[in-house]
Amino acid sequence: MESIDLWKNALLFLIALVLSVSVHEFGHAWAASRMGDSLPQSQGRLTLNPIHHIDPVGTLLFPILMSMAGGGMFGWGRPVMTNPSNYTRRLSRPTGSMLVAVAGPAMNLVMAFLVSVVIVVALRFGVMSTGIAEALIRYLVQLNLILLFFNLLPIPPLDGGAVLAWVLPRSMQGVIEFLSRWGFLILLGLMIATPVLGWAMAPGYAIIDVWVSVVRGAAGL
User: Fold this and answer.
1) Alpha-carbon distance 106 to 147, whole Å?
2) Angle at CA 12, nearest 5°, toward 17 and 208?
3) Which of 2, 25, 134, 177 does the annotation list as catalytic?
């Protein structure tokens, strides 16, 4: 029974991850398109259809392997390709890149908010069971908020790397070049071998706990 519950939880998480990653990547595509870049649309990324955003390794294989290894679940979607040279000239290229980058986490915030509202309204009107509400909180609200804060960490290839590049002066752009080359390995090392990532995420986890408490209270859970 325990193994069945484990696989059930893994499947629900995987479904939630696919939906959340799709919303995230759509945010990047939408923002780039609004900036004047037609590349995301030409590549079929200006859609919420998960098929266009799933990365076979990052969205499916890697999370499943992590779950089987007992290390929790983590994953990513297929990155949206953009051409910053097509962005509107009303903004500098670093500013445009930053706005496109933060649009992904922003969409996770929007999704967490909308699902929270649905939970509160549905429970208040008695059209949703507490079990479904708890599952939505766990698999969609919390997951999207985690993706929000995680992706804003200032380490390329995460979206926070573009924010860091926007903040740093030109004389320090070598830091971004270094992180762009080695950032994924650094991030993987921090996740596996050190508690640093947990420390960096601590403020985000605190906000998530408050958010969930507010939703539960408003929904009467």
Assistant:
1) 10
2) 60
3) 25
